[in-house]
Structure formats: structure tokens, C-alpha cells
Amino acid sequence: MATRMTHRLALGGLLVAGGLGFLGCGGSASTSTGATSTPPTPAATPMQVSLGDAPADWIMAFGMTVNGITLTSASGTSVNVVPAATPMEMMQTMGTVQPLSTLSMPQGTYTQATVTVSSVAMSYMDPATHTTKQKTMAGPFTATVPFSPAMTVGASPMALNFDMDMAASVSIDGSGNVTFTPMLSAKTANAPGTGTNPWQGGMQHQVGRVSAVSGSTFTMSSMMGVQTTTFATNGATQFPSAGLTGMGMMSTGMMVAVDATLQADGSYLAQRVEAMGVDAAGMMGGGLVTSLTGNPPTQLTLMANGGLGGGMMAASMGGTITGSLPASVPFSIDADGTDLANLPFTPAFGPVSLALGQRVEVTSPGALMGGGMMGGGMTGSGLGTLTASQVRLEPQGLHGTVSNYTTAGSQASFTLTLPADSAFATLTGASTITVYQQAGTQFQGLTAPANGAAIQARGLLFHDAGTYKLVASWITAH
User: Fold this and answer.
1) Residues forming beta bridges with residue 154, ordered by sequence position
2) For 280-294, what is each residue's pLDDT tens digit?
3) CATH top-level class of 201-275
4) What does the pLDDT read at residue 39?
5) Superfamily for the 396-477 domain
6) From CA 309, how far away is CA 209, in angstroms rounded?
7) How confident is the model at residue 313 (pLDDT cuts 50, 70, 90)?
8) Quick check: pTM over 0.90?
9) I want to staple 446 with a disulfide (CB 3.0 to 4.6 A). Which of 115, 126, 437, 477 is the partner?
10) Per-domain residue ranges for the chain?
11) What is the pLDDT of residues 39-84, one digit of tens each?
């Protein structure tokens, strides 16, 4: 596996995978006359800027700060579309994208982007020793992403989606030295103002704390991705939680998860708002289960790739959280966006079916306790401990090669064979998983999997009768 882990580093300009889609020009600008006339201000268009990743299977968590993304126009002017430093964790975005910012983008033609990131904190499975290691890199690191063909911003709301090729960006040599040279591509899409497709101006399971409430709108602050967002609600907005059945129950400090859609005026309309069961004093930590103690488990350890609240920081990504599991702690499934109907097995999640390699969110009424810090602000031995008040199964992405593709009406199933350097395979001992394609499964970059194809499957991973089974909400081309 050591030879597999010597990843390729690019030696030239960055290529844009698949090109960038054209959007029709539109809008108009007034002009002035006379010798002292000044150029008109370009009309502006709502744009959502998002970031996702193509997988590096040996990496378990990769936190970083996006310092800025500057687009250069054909006339030489520049627009920073991520004007505030924005923390991101890349491995939890496998098979999806997460919004970095929303802005009014001047209409025109743009030829390239310059992306600057810093403060990398990563955790990975060493290919030689099969042990988990951590690495921090201060940066800054800069990448140039040429747009070929050039990107045209017209009158229609749009999404600009960057994809970081983690396998090409992060390299480890035979001596265990890790280097980072960011490699990105970009694509555009129309933002139709309906649905929550993340590649088309949608937002799925954006977690944050409510910072303001006013009538039918609320503002939320997040630790990862877009930092502050204001959402409108209407009669169609769903409030599925017993603790939050409508705007009348919302209060500042409450932790919520939001699905939303970018509207034509640049605002967000919340489609679904779910309370996480944590108030201003509590916290949530999300990540991969790396160890379990007891049968049934009385304790778990997470490799953190998300979180919010007391004791959680952007620099915490890649550290570990130790959670005590009381016998009475409730287990639940975040089935939002995943079709669990008519499966050939019963999708269950609880103490008996909690397994290594699953991505879960653990909430606690209090902050993380203890933990020791190492260089770069990242925690080495552990971020701290908590007593869980809820354990919830969350969507995750896995990458591999398709075989045994079999259809049955609107459903299908196939075997996903994981790469040889897969940290998941090393952690769990499972080199293959069974993936279930449902009537509600959505596709990005392909219409259906084909035997021999490399794909990313994102969905809920169950451990049923000793076998890993993933019910796909998204299947994307790799």
C-alpha cells in the first residue's frame, strides 16, 4: 500500500474537470454621456459559491481555512467571492458540496479563480503502519483555477462549485512526509430557486446556532462553511422536531440543521428546520467512529470532522472526541434526503448496530471536558470527553468501483469495492460494501452506475447482521 500512497502532484496549471457551464447573459446597465462620463456599474446576479472534494481514501479528516477565492474577469478586474476567512472540513463533503458564501456577483465574463487556504489540520491512516497520525500545515497555500471555457455571469441566479481533488492535492512519500499542493476544478450551474440540490444553489443539513429571530426569519451562525446566513420561512417550511414545531418556538442559542434554497433575490428560503436538541450551553461533535468499548457499547471515540458549541473549534478537525454512552441515550437516524422505503433489510441504528466507520453526530448538554492542545491549535491526544444526550447516524461518502449492478424496478443494488489505501477498509476490515440505489436516489455527473465505473456513493451506512450496507441519497461520478 505504500506505493499506492505516493500520490501524484501536478506540475503545471490546474485543469478544470469537465469545463464550466455557460450561463446566458442578461440584464442591462445605464450609461452616461459627456466627456466626464464614468463606466456604468455592472448589474449583479445572486451566486452561491460552494466547495466539495474528490476523495483521498487514506485521509480521515482534513480541516482548513479558505482565506479567499478571487475571480478575475476578462477585463482584468477582480472579485473576492469568499471575502471572510471560512473554515472547512473536506472529508465530510465527499459526494456533495457545502456553501462557502453567497453574494451579488457583477455580471460579465471571468477567466480564472485564485484560491488561498491555510491552517491545515489533518488526520490520516499511515499506509505503512496502519496507525492513525495527525499533521498540521500553516500555509498559506495558493491554487490558480483557469476557467475553460470562460465563465459567463448573466441575469439568472447561479451556483459556482469548486471541487478539491484531495488525492492529487495531498501526498505522502515512503518516509511518511506529507505535503499539500491544492488542486481544484470548478463548474457552474443554474440555481432554479426550487429544491435543495447543493450543486444548484441548495443547502442541505447546514448546522449552526440561531443568533437572531425576527417574525418569520432567523439568522444562523455556523462553524464550517458559510459563516452567517439569514433564512426566510413560509407555510411550506417543515419543522419536524418535537422541540421546534414552528417559528414561535425558535429562540437564540438553539442549534438547528437547515435545508434551504437560494431565491432569485439572493435570499434563502428554508425548506426544513430541525432542532438538534441542544441549547446555548451544549455542543455537538460529528465524525467517524474509530473505536467502541463494551458490548453493547458504553463508550465511543470519534475522529472529528464537524461540530459546534462549547469546546469545538475549526482547528479541532482531525482530533478525537471520547463519548460516554449512558444506557438510556437515544439513537436516531438523520433520514432527511435518504429514501429508506422497501429495502430488503430493516435499516436500524442503535447500540447493537453502532459500528466502526459510521459517521455519527453526538450531542451533549454541556461543553467538551479536558483535552490537550498541540501545535497549530489542533488537539493531539484528544479534544475532550462528553456524556452523550443523543447519537444520530449521519450521511457519509464512500468511493470505489462498481460491480454486480442489479436492477429491480425503481431500485438497484451493487457492490462497491474500496481502494487498497482506504482508511475505512483498514479501520473496519471491510474491503467491499453493498450499496442500495433507491427511487429517491439522485445522480450527479452520471445517469446510473455501470460495472467497472469509479463512483462516490453518499448516504446512510448501516451495519446489518455484520455487513455494511449503504443506502445512497446521491451517487456521483468520480
Assistant:
1) none
2) 888 999 999 999 999
3) mainly beta
4) 60
5) Nucleic acid-binding proteins (2.40.50.140)
6) 8
7) confident
8) no
9) 477
10) 44-191, 201-275, 283-393, 396-477
11) 666 799 999 999 998 888 899 999 999 999 999 999 999 999 998 9
Averaged pLDDT, 252-275: 95
Nearest to residue 120, comparing CAs of 194, 59, 173, 75?
59
pLDDT digits (tens, 9 = 90+) for 104-132: 999 999 999 999 999 999 999 887 788 88
Distance of CA 269 to the CA centre of its chain: 20
**Are residues 100 and 226 in contact, defined by beta-carbon separation less than 8 angstroms?**
yes
Pairwise CA distance, residues 447 & 451, whole Å: 13
Q: Is there a contact between 394 and 287 (Cβ–Cβ < 8 Å)?
A: no
CB of 387 closer than 8 Å to CB of 326: yes
> CA–CA separation, 253 vs 280, rounded Å?
4
